[in-house]
Every structure is written in C-alpha cells, then in structure tokens.
Amino acid sequence: MTALSSARNLTNMDSYLESQLTTTENIIFSENVSGSNADQSYIDSLESASAYLWIIISPIFLFVGVFGNILNLIVLRRMHFEKNPTLILLFLLSVTDIAVLLVGLPRYWARDALQFDLRTVSQFSCKFSLFLIYISMQLSSWILVLVSVIRVIKTVLPLRYPKTKIRVTRKNTLTVFCIVVIALCIINFHFFITNGVITEDGEASCTSLTPDFRNFDEYVFVYIDFLMMSVFPAIIIIVCNIFIYLVLKNMKQRRASTTSTDKVTSDSVSRVTRMLFVTSSYFVISTAPISLHFIVDSYVRPGSDDLTQAKLDMSFTVLYLFQFSHFVINFYCYTVTNKRFRRSVKKLKDEVKNRITRHGGLASDSHDVNSSAERSKNQSMDAVSKSHY
User: Fold this and answer.
1) Do the beta carbons of residue 206 and residue 117 sit within 8 Å?
2) How confident is the model at residue 383 (pLDDT cuts 50, 70, 90)?
3) Is 269 helix (H, G, I), strand (E, B) or coil?
4) Angle at 121 (CA atoms; ends 115, 125), nearest 5 degrees
5) What letter would DSSP give residue 360?
6) What angle in degrees, to the nearest 10, is found between the helix axes of 330-337 and 260-300?
7) Are 98 and 163 within 8 A, CB to CB?
8) Average pLDDT over residues 363-373
9) SS3 state of residue 205
10) CA-to-CA distance for 35 and 33, rounded, in angstroms?
11) Pairwise CA distance, residues 214 & 209, whole Å
12) C-beta of residue 19 within 8 angstroms of C-beta of residue 287
C-alpha cells in the first residue's frame, strides 16, 4: 500500500509539474504575442505618420517653394541681375532650388499617396532622377559658397588688403559656376551606370543594379555626398562669414567718425551680408543631419528588424523634409533681411495691384499720383544702394 501510495503521489506530482510548465509556457507565449502586437502597432503608427508627413507637407513645400522662387526670379530680373555677379548667382540659386523641389517632392508624394514610384517609369527616369536630385542639391550648396566668397572679396579684401586687386566680374563668376557644374556632373555621373529599375516579386524599384554597385552607393558615395553637399561648403561658408562678421564689426566701430556716404555704404553692405548670412546658416543647419542619416542608415538597416527600419524611415522623412525647407525659404529670407529686395517686392505688388485696379475700372488719379511718387522714391533709394549690392 505504501509503494502504491508513493507511486500515486509521484504521478500527481508529475501532472502538477507538467501543468505548471504548460501554464508558464502559455504565459510566455501570451507575453510574446502581446509584445509582438505592440511592436507591430508601433511600426504601423510610424509608417502611417511618415506617409502622412509626405502627403500633407510635400504639396505645401512644393507650392510655397516654387511660388517663392519664381518671385525671386521676377524680382531679380527687375533688379537687373545680369549686371551684378552676386545677383546672377542668386538667380541661378532660385532656378536650382526649383529643380530640387520639382524633382524631389512629387516623387515622395506619389509614392505614399498613390503607391506609385515615379522613378520606376523607365530605366532613364530612374537614372536621370537620381542624377538630377543629387547634382541640384549639391549645386545649391556650392552656389552659396560662391556667393560667400564674393562677399569676402568685396568686403574683407579691400579693408584688410587694400593693395590686392581681385575683380569680380560676370565673366569670371559664370566661368567658375560652369567649372563647379562640370565637376558635380562628373561626381554624380555614376548613377547612369550603377542604378536602374529592378523588378523582384512583381515589385519594381529604382536601386543599385549589382551588389558591388550597392556597396559603392551605400559605403562610398554616401561619404562623397556628405563632403560635397555639407562638409566642404559648410566649412567655407562658416570661415567666410567669420571674416565678414569681423569686418562689419570693425566698420560699426568706425561709423562715428565716417562721412554720411561711408555710412550708407556700410549699411548697404551690412544688409546684403546679413541676408546671405541667414540663408547660408540655415543651409548648414538643414543639410548636415540628412547627410549623416544616410551614413548611419547604410550600416544600421542591413539585417535590422521591422521596428528599426520603421524608425529609420521616420528619421529619413523628418530630416529630408527639413532639408527641403531650405530650398523653400530663400525668397522669404531675402524679403525679411534685405530692404532693397523688400522694396522691389513692394513695387512689384503695387504694380500688379494697379493693373488689376485699372482693368476693373476702379483706378483713380490720386492713386496714380501716389504710386508715381512712391516709385520715384524707391528708384532714388535703389540708386544709392545699387552699386553696393
């Protein structure tokens, strides 16, 4: 009886342990399922937020940016940009920024709103789109570099090195600009060789054509792009701005003893430099983060789980939109920080308003007289500052 009782106890103990083990396994499995569901919900939230940011913000950036840059072109044309090297570069900068916005933003909007990638239309669209977006972004950076260098030549050299004779002309400005364009074309030409449309499991994508090309794009070109679009331009722009700041500070200290003409010259130089300083500073702040993201993404994404990839995608969306904002705000920076540009915008607005009024049959003689007086006043003010732009 004792042996039978012991056997029964052992059997009951085994049953109890087995039931406890099963319960523990069920709890662990339930926790894993719950954690997995939570992660999936978080991933879905990140993907939805990223898509909505592109769908909502990209059309706003596209309209505001293209509209502002077209206004830039109109105002600069009215300021006779072709006679001034700095204005020539600002004109080219607006054209470049329009190209960036038109090539970049519609593609991401269509991808998330219509589930259609414009780059996959053809092999050429894939290659040319990549080439154009990279070269236009990099060119925008280097135009700001050229503008900063011109400001240094015009403000720093005459005061620090008065015997130095370096002339900034339309010809040598356009020559340097063409050299920069050719250099950037050479750097980015590889996209016509390394990238194309590949179809896998019925889904087309614009990507690297071979593993070797992918290694080049992911582990070599990201550094080239980082240097050409962010690091080198930022270093040159920051150094130029420091030199200009020191010169302007010195000019301010000497204002009390200068003539009225010198004061006008100093104010004009300060206004233009302030405008360019704001634009170039925002450029440095907006371009570096996304370039660093591309480098980090190259090492973190391969082999990562879905949650990590969703976080990387969200980071890309936020930082890339931040970079696009740089190509949107130039007109508004010019208007806020430069009086001459602001006066030209006001004159354009008044003329458009007058045309609308005349066509509506509501024009009055007093309004025309006031407008003429205002135009005469603005023209006289422009004549004072024109030579110092």
Assistant:
1) yes
2) very low
3) helix
4) 120
5) T
6) 150
7) no
8) 47
9) strand
10) 5
11) 7
12) no
